[in-house]
Predict the 3D structure of the following.
Amino acid sequence: MEAGYQIPRAALLWVLSAVTLVILPQIINLPAWLLLIALTCVVWRLLIFSGRLSYPGKLTRIVAVLFTLGVSVYQMRSLGIGLESAASLLTLGFVFKLIEMRYQRDIYVVLSLCFVMSMVAFLYSQSAVMTIYVSLCVTVIVGAMIAVNRSGQEASRKPTLRIATKIALQALPLTIVLFLLFPRIAPLWAVPVPTSGGTTGVTDEMSPGDLSQLGRSNELAFRVQFEDSPPPLHAELYWRGLVLEEFDGETWSRSRSRSSYGIASQLADFQWQWQDRITVQGEPLVYNVILEPTQQPWLYGLHLAEPETDNLFQSRNFEVFNSGLVSTRTSYDMRSFPNNQTDLILLDSARRRALQLPEQGNQRAKTFATELRAAENSEREYVYAVLAFFQQNPFFYTLNPALLSQDRVDDFLFNTQEGFCEHYASAFTFLMRAADIPARVVVGYHGAKYNRYEDFMMVYQYNAHAWSEVWLDGEGWVRVDPTGAVSPERIEQGVEAALADDPAFMEESLLAAVGLGGFNWINTLRLRLEAVEYEWNRRVVNYNEEQQFELFDELFGEIDDEKLISLLVLLAGAVVIGIGLTVIRRDGIQSRDSITQVYLKISGELARIGLPRLPGEGPLVYRDRVVSLRPDLDSAMNELTKLYVHLNYAQPRITAQTEKAYLKTMRARLRELRAALRRNDSYLSE
Amino acid sequence: MSMRSINLSEKSAAAAPIVGNRHSQQVARAVSEISKALLGKEHQIKLSLCCLFSGGHLLIEDLPGMGKTTLSYALARALGLEFNRIQFTSDLLPADILGISIFDQNTAQFTFHPGPIFSQLILADEINRTTPKTQSALLEAMEERQVTIEGETRALPEPFFVIATQNPVTLAGTYPLPESQLDRFLMRLRLGYPDQRAERELLEMNTERDKLMEVQQCLTIAEISEFRQQSAEVTASSSLLDYVQRLVNYTRSGEGFHYGLSPRGSLALMRASKTWALMCGRTHVVPEDVQTILPFVVEHRLRAVADEDGHTSASLVQRLLNEVDVLT
């Protein structure tokens, strides 16, 4: 036991800041009680240091271990073996170790755990900001390792932070090279996905209030980048998600049951009738979408999107599906035709689905629809009349509508008259079907925020939207957005403009909470940051085997596994040799100038006969010592020393020419010395 | 390792070549003159000349009766310097050294009566026996080379050279010089016991004082100031400066040193090395010059971590010389 070891004050502060830094990013993911324990442990540790508390006794430690065991068993039973339970187990052990950190080796354990903990942060987020933050953590942990091994006096001479930064920066090039070149082996295990987040985004059911819930969130839904062409106008940015055709009086839902999506996506491949059902005009828009994980299978795109990426499927309503749930950030390419007509001839089965209404309820709306249809000449005019109805009555666009009673459509249309887009889409579609016009609800997103720094668009959850599609004879399915009639700015300028005064809008956002959302520079900063994150995602996080081989092809031409392995071996060799040389250099064999190099060879020669130069010996003292022991070397040593002293000390600096001339003489004398040595040695040995 | 513990300072003094020229001859003559009075102490005499030629002050630390006073007298005689001796006691006041203004009844004016400090060579005997106030009066004069009395600044004679002595053994009732004031002395010497031969010669003499009379002046003040000027022109090559910097850095970062050498200390080291090289008749400094004078220049400016009274740094300085590589 190293009794009496006291962790240096500076070192303890370094360790505690490292611990705090690595726990910080997990604050949102960790339960509150765990944070409380972590805080207690840090404070306890500080109190131990100031002498106000002692190290935990045996009993306390046993209790802590039992508690940890209990918690992990409980968590595994309630949450399953997953990321949360593992992370909280790790954190718990980590912070408990802090209070019994007594000797140097305990600190090393804590610091090693710090490295692990900082990597855990990547399981939750792999953004550029997080990477920079983790680099900072690593620097601080390295700083703590340095601080533990230094006395206060040494630390005052050269700041610990500077050394730590230097070490971290030295590691950077190697990190980059390894990142680029290390084989991307398929993971041996899958990282369990955080389950607490659950599904996000638009769902395949729409009840009043669903989308307005999304309107409160400023989380990113997806990013879009248009290739070659300028993006369409804001009013045209309808990101189509799902088509909801079934209505039960309250909720719109998709025809197929949720469980059958896997098969549905297989069966939904209607390529064979693609040409028959659509007519297109003009050039398609080509764009790339990076979708944040939704835990749902469907994807988003502009209307009549044709997926360019493999393994995507289209359903009969021209929805696009992934082949599995979107559980990681997913990138796909799309091709859309803005000018299109679909289903000019509507099949009976489809017509039936698009006209279905519940028998009971909402009688007033049905009557209203029938009367209004009778007053109009054509279906199109009826559509206009309904939109005019929304426009002329005091309908109000809000995130916080009044609650609706039994007959929801009736109550909304004739009573409360306030709602979010899903209310309008729902009521409008209802009125269409009631007048025998095929209609359906489409959910997705509308609008986007353009990031001019990187030329891409961002679609947030608050962009969630619902609208209708109406089938008109000779025109096919036509998109009608009743929200536009109520709140035109929602469509033309975006949801931010329409809801700027609504306190519920984006209320989950921190910025909005402190009232900073309105500042221009903060928005600029956010756009910049988003731009960086976009690039980061595209180039770093999505760097996979395919891209790696592309890079290799670019760098080294055609490449195979054999070449790759030899390249890696070469690289490792270079690193090892580099480190080796640095270590050897530090031993001081190498010297600055060639004169001294030659002179050192004398010492090397004489070392063989047991007369090496001692470090503190000047050339003259050394000469005297050698000559006193080996008088036979007198003349050679004298000459060499004289030359060396003259060259090295008599002139403030010498020209390269003189140096060269003198060096030549010195080398000649050195050869003489060697010869003399050999001659005499052989003589002596005989 | 026994090989490592050789005394490099002495070896270096022997190894560095002495080139016969005017300077080295002058030095040899002065040393031999002074040796008439102080037997067997040629190296110390040469070192004190080096200190004087560098324009620095000398601190001699030794037991009573080792020849401190004799060295000072002999130096003054050989160099033809005006000499004053001040015996420091606990009741000595600054005015006793610097001088005092006295009211003259006849002229009805204050006239200044200069103190013993107005002299070219001062022997400040047992400087640690007086109060810090008086000590600092002397040390200020040493540094400024002028004294200010009653608001009037008076220049001290040129050259101005102080040899202070202190007894390191009996510390009762003394006021040891603080580090900041020790730093003002360019060198600290110890005379040490004479060797057998010198002691015998000493014993065969009738009286010690007679010997002093034999010391003849062999250098003029002009020649002394010439030494000073020319030592500034001695070459110190970049390799040598590298070595000096390595030495200085070792004291600042090496283990065992309580604190490192100050810039004033490293400047003093360079100045004394150059003078030493000049005294050996050379126009360039070799590492051996630095090694020769280093213990005397830096020992009193350094302190070992474990050392409390300032007297055990000698081994530390030996380690410094042994461990710092001369070449790389």
